[in-house]
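Supplementary Methods, section 5.1.

A reviewer requested that the exact input to the structure prediction be made available. We therefore reproduce it here, unchanged from the version used in the analyses.
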Amino acid sequence: MNFRNYYSILGVDRNASQKEIKKAYRKLATQYHPDKTKGDAASEEKFKEVSEAY
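The structure derived from this sequence is encoded token-by-token as follows.
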């Protein structure tokens, strides 16, 4: 099985609060959103990864 560390994907500590997790998600989602990175496949994959982690 392939286990992923969602905390590291979001760049937060394992003991992070819901508020910190949400803030990190929103920052990364905005940064990698397909509408902002038109045509960049790597950014689109990163956006999907961040969304899954959240």
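The helical segments are 6-10, 18-32, 41-53. These observations are discussed further in the main text.
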